[in-house]
Amino acid sequence: MHIITGLVMASLLKRGQEKAVPQSPLLRLAAPVRTRHLLPGRARFEVPRLKGDANTAEDLALSLQRIQAVEAVRVSPVTGSVILCYDPEAISPELLVAAIIKLLDLETELDRAPSSVVSRELREVSHAVNRAVYDRTGGIVDLRTAMFLTLAAVGVTRLWRGGALALPAGFTLLWWAGNGLLGKRGGSPCSS
């Protein structure tokens, strides 16, 4: 909630100042409400939460129509699109975004750390490879176990071949393998 309040206040304070590109942070959000088209007096927003939810779309349309400066509202549960015609002298598009976020109770989504498309796709690929390894070995080994067993084997091999010269690399690999197999994870307490 504090993020929305700060963004709305910044928008209101800058309202009198004209810029070449009047894009406030609220209008540049990628989620939960994305600005798709903006003209003075008309705005189109994309709200993925509305897709497939006709009741929520209808409730949002009724709530937005109660705003005095809003002249027309069209909400599509098929596309998740919200089209608003409004009086640009009475209300800013930033306040309309804030109203949509508040009415749909999307404040918690603003506080969540975003997950990039690349990160999600890599996670999906790793799950698919993990499943393939698990199925191929008949459930004996999964990707994580195979990876750490490989590290352990390379570590032992380096220790055996290199003797004292290979101690740091060999022991490091054994350490990683042991921590991985035992489920202990190093690094930041914030990482998952």
3D architecture notes:
The structure is a single chain. This protein has 192 residues and is α+β, with helices and mostly antiparallel strands. The chain has 2 domains: 2-111, Alpha-Beta Plaits, CATH 3.30.70; 117-182, no CATH class. It is built from 7 helices and 4 strands, in the order αββαββααααα. Strands 1-2-4-3 form a 4-stranded antiparallel sheet. A hairpin with a 4-residue loop joins strand 3 (70-76) and strand 4 (81-86). Helix 6 runs antiparallel to helix 7. The model is unreliable at 17-22 and 186-192 (pLDDT under 50).
Compute the separation of the termini in Å.
26 Å
> Which outline best applies?
elongated
Give the tally of β-strands.
Answer: 4
Classified by CATH, the class of the largest domain is: Alpha Beta
Helix content: 40-55%
CATH architecture of the largest domain: 2-Layer Sandwich
Whole-number tally of structural domains: 2
Strand order across the biggest sheet? Answer: 1-2-4-3
Question: Into which percentage range does the β-strand content fall?
Answer: 5-15%
